[in-house]
Structure to design on (331 residues):
């Protein structure tokens, strides 16, 4: 194995591992809140839970061919195994854009002022979350059904790591011209639709935050309500996620178009491979860093220290030290 290939594999495995660790940590926190701490639940937790699950499945489906290449495993997936892996990867990536769009639109409605036309949707929006999930799943399960007939297992495995996405499985398009044109058109229209609404919601949230900042600029920060501050922090985090996602989406789209219509470049192909899992890898850490309900490392270490037998020298310090409880305020 070439040194360059080994470096690419190491980076991919590291990126996948970090992403899985963050998503599983976040998922554990959400499950704990749903079961034992319902008073800490906030309106976007259901959306973020689905996003976390989708991110985890995306990382797992992306990591399978990397691990197979690393351990030099022959292609034992077969056509059916390849179809499952490629189908799962494409569906979860599509659900990512839908869920992120739903998150941004939902937050825009949540922070809309009472004088806005969107304010009347505040009480109806939570009821639309689960039906939206159902619609997204049904839509994409049927939309990508053509992958079951176009995905095949590669029998001659002689591709480099730069092609690890195609090393064991490949999708053969243009088997039916009309069907493929309809499929690509549907994918393009879907992306334009959801990216447009994500952008609109982001611009609207920026305007609302700016107007809110102008209203409170003469008010001391200590007089601001905790709920208002929590909503501002949550909105800023969602804005960061949307900006990050849209930026990666357009970079990935530009590179993909260049590879398909200009020339094929190995380095650009590697870049696309990393961009695919960049968002699901970093997204949970953005949420963890801004969510006060997630225990921080220093609080975990303090709890471990408190569980240890106290020594005579540190007994007074342990008595005076304050614990790190999970906050009860909803942000």
């Amino acid at each position: 194995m070439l040194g360059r290939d080994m470096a690419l594999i190491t980076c991919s495995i590291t990126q996948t591992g970090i992403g899985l660790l963050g998503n599983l940590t976040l998922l554990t926190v959400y499950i704990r809140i749903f079961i034992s701490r319902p008073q800490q639940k906030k309106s976007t937790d259901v959306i973020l839970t689905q996003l976390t699950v989708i991110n985890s499945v995306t990382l797992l489906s992306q990591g399978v061919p990397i691990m197979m290449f690393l351990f030099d495993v022959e292609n034992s997936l077969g056509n059916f195994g390849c179809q499952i892996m490629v189908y799962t990867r494409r569906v979860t990536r599509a659900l990512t854009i839908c869920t992120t769009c739903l998150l941004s639109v939902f937050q825009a409605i949540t922070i809309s002022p009472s004088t806005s036309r969107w304010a009347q949707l505040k009480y109806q929006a939570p009821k639309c979350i689960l039906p939206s999930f159902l619609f997204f799943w049904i839509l994409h399960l049927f939309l990508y059904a053509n992958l079951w007939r176009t995905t095949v297992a590669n029998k001659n495995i002689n591709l480099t790591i730069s092609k690890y996405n195609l090393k064991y499985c490949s999708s053969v398009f243009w088997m039916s011209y009309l069907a493929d044109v309809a499929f690509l058109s549907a994918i393009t229209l879907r992306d334009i639709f959801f990216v447009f609404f994500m952008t609109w919601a982001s611009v609207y949230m920026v305007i609302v935050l700016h107007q809110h900042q102008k209203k409170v600029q003469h008010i001391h920060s200590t007089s601001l309500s905790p709920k208002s501050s929590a909503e501002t922090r949550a909105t800023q985090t969602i804005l960061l996620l949307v900006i990050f996602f849209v930026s990666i989406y357009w970079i990935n789209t530009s590179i993909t178009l260049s590879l398909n219509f200009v020339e094929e470049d190995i380095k650009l192909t590697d870049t696309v491979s990393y961009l695919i899992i960049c968002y699901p890898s970093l997204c949970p850490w953005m949420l963890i860093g801004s969510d006060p309900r997630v225990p921080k490392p220093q609080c975990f270490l303090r709890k471990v220290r408190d569980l240890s037998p106290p020594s005579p020298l540190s007994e007074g310090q342990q008595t005076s030290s304050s614990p790190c409880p999970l906050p009860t305020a909803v942000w």
Q: What stands out?
A: Confidence is low (pLDDT under 50) at residues 157-166, 313-323, 325-331. The first strand starts at residue 151 and ends at 153. The domain at 1-219+227-296 is CATH 1.20.1070.10 (Rhopdopsin 7-helix transmembrane proteins).
